[in-house]
């Protein structure tokens, strides 16, 4: 394995874990994508060159269409954008994506009727606990991939003559296409997983994120996100458990996580 590919692999796993936010494991397969012949080779090629394979061109179109679904009065695309901006705006030192996070900071900067959830990044197995006010719907990725621009020279760069959005979609679509298994349940019951991708959008990450991901500069950047997403209607007062595990055809098992939710009366 070359040095450059090793760096790209670490970046994929890191961002996948972060943007993955909030789910866990169980017995029920909600999204099982078959290992298509050549998937591994296509994914590696896309990550090296930024070229979207014909197969992922088709899935990228379907993912863009999936983002037009409406839930809680908003399009799924806007929910994804709001979630990503929310997550990266919080300093990593107190962020729910911090590998040391236990769930104590899950309420930071939450606004409106939809509660964003995220899990500690970079951990293959984790358990977190989060207190949520009653009446809040929950939005989270089972697995998401977020690719920002510009990024440092040791990661794939925009090829000459290629449109930026095409390049970003190549990075994210090929990665998500490689997911071979995603399992998610709420209190042991299966949750539906949606595939959806945004267009390009702007964000500004907190300045200390550069210590965790060198591509997040703390200044305005553009990005694009693709993934498998969970939409959970407001759960009843009491304790609930979300479980998710995800496996990738190129990178293997990515994570097996559990979120214990304490839903409290306002």
How would you characterize the overall build of this protein?
The radius of gyration is 17 Å and the shape is globular. Helices cover 26% and strands 33% of the residues. Strands 1, 5, 7, 8, 12 and 13 form a 6-stranded mixed β-sheet that branches. Strands 4, 6, 9, 10 and 11 form a 5-stranded mixed β-sheet that branches. A hairpin with a 2-residue loop joins strand 7 (179-186) and strand 8 (189-190). The model is unreliable at 1-37 (pLDDT under 50). The relative contact order is 0.26. Helix 2 (39-49) packs antiparallel against helix 5 (164-177) and helix 3 (54-66) crosses helix 5 (164-177). The chain has one domain. The N and C termini lie far apart (53 Å). With 266 residues, it is of the alpha+beta class. It has helices at residues 3-20, 39-49, 54-66, 76-89, 164-177; strands at 29-31, 70-71, 74-75, 114-116, 125-133, 137-149, 179-186, 189-190, 193-197, 201-204, 220-232, 238-248, 252-264. The longest helix has 18 residues, at 3-20.
């Amino acid at each position: 394995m070359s040095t450059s590919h090793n760096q790209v692999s670490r970046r994929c796993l890191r961002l996948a874990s972060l943007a993955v936010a909030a789910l866990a494991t169980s017995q029920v397969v909600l999204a099982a994508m078959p290992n298509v012949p050549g998937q591994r080779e296509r994914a590696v090629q896309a990550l090296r060159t930024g070229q979207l394979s014909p197969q992922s061109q088709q899935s990228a179109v379907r993912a863009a269409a999936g983002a037009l679904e409406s839930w809680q009065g908003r399009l799924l695309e806007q929910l994804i954008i709001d979630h990503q901006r929310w997550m990266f705006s919080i300093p990593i030192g107190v962020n729910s994506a911090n590998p040391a996070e236990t769930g104590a900071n899950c309420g930071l900067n939450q606004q409106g009727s939809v509660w964003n959830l995220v899990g500690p990044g970079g951990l293959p197995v984790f358990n977190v606990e989060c207190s949520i006010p009653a009446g809040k719907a929950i939005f989270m990725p089972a697995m998401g991939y977020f690719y920002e621009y510009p990024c440092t020279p040791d990661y794939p760069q925009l090829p000459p003559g290629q449109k930026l959005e095409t390049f970003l979609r190549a990075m994210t679509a090929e990665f998500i296409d490689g997911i071979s298994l995603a399992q998610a349940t709420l209190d042991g019951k299966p949750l539906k997983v949606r595939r959806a991708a945004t267009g390009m959008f702007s964000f500004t990450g907190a300045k200390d994120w550069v210590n965790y991901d060198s591509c997040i500069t703390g200044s305005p950047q553009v990005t694009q996100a693709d993934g498998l997403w969970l939409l959970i209607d407001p759960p009843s007062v009491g304790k609930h458990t979300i479980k998710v595990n995800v496996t990738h055809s190129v990178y293997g098992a990515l994570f097996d996580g559990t979120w214990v939710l304490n839903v409290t009366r306002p």
